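User: Fold this; tokens only.

Assistant: Input:
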Amino acid sequence: MANAGAPPRGSEAGFGVYVHWPFCLAKCPYCDFNSHVRHEAVDEARHRDALIREIEHRAALAGPRIVDSIFFGGGTPSLMSARTVGAAIEAIAASFSLAPDAEITLEANPTSVEAGRFRGFRAAGVNRVSIGVQALHDADLAALGRRHSAAEALEALEIARKNFERFSFDLIYARPGQALASWRAELERALSHAGGHLSLYQLTIEPGTMFERLRDAGRLELPSPDLSRDFFDATQEIMEKAGLPAYEVSNHAAPGEESRHNLVYWRSGEWAGVGPGAHGRLILAGARRAQAVERDPAVWLDLVERDGHGLVEDVALTREEQGDEFLLMGLRLAEGVEIARFEAAAGRSLDARRVETLRAEGMIEVTAQGRLKVAPQGFPLLDAVVADLAA
């Protein structure tokens, strides 16, 4: 059995399982995630059975592992029943080996109906929720395509506080037409309702979204680059003062409250991805493999029922790809990356001249302990810094 004996943790960065639930009540205009709106009822029993089969498949593929974290993402996982969430957790515990202190997170939307399910999710084994608040102004919520009000969001946060040891929520800033002073006031208000973690995302226009079409048609008023930088700087200032500094470019936490599951990604750990559109990274036979699951929920369901899994991509990453991915993910963190780990992954050293140029420009720092970090003034230009180092 996969959980017999003393299974390894997989890597120093930990091992996680990501479970994707692809269904939403509506498609938000900024979202490019694998989410689908269904006007007919979802056959949850079939999807539950398929998730369990796919979990069992990944466990057989990965071999014995201790699972440090589970993350239910989407889509809108809080549309699942507590029974389905509990069944997935039980399947993971039975197929792998679940650490006694495993972090088990579920993303939720703060409608009153979904918030009422929190007690059921807690009983099923979830010990952390991440709530998609996105804004605390009703007009902005409507513009973002959200189906809840600010009052419902605050109510959901209070229910989360009563039911979970840990909770987080998301906000989007630099929204169309938003004033900097308004964001400062909104963020201060959000902090009065926060626990130990906040995810604060600067609005980006993703390909294929409604917001991209509106922008291209000249119907979306976005902040200038200078104003966008002001939004970012104000966010860092307020969160630092509140004792929740950025440990990742868009995520802020009190010490010890960081998302353990997301740290698996950013620290280049291993994780198994199950459900439509999920991605994973597993080290098998000495090779780090990139895995992807069929995105279409109906096709995925047929594949799992026929083959026991929905994997449509399972390829070994080259050393160059591993090095690029290591920098792309790890330099998002305030702690940066270990240069020795990069060299082991990429099979090469960083270009000393590029490193020195970026350091002289104040974009990066190199510590005496052999870590490479993006400097505070470099984070707004993170993509360019990473591209320069990876070249």
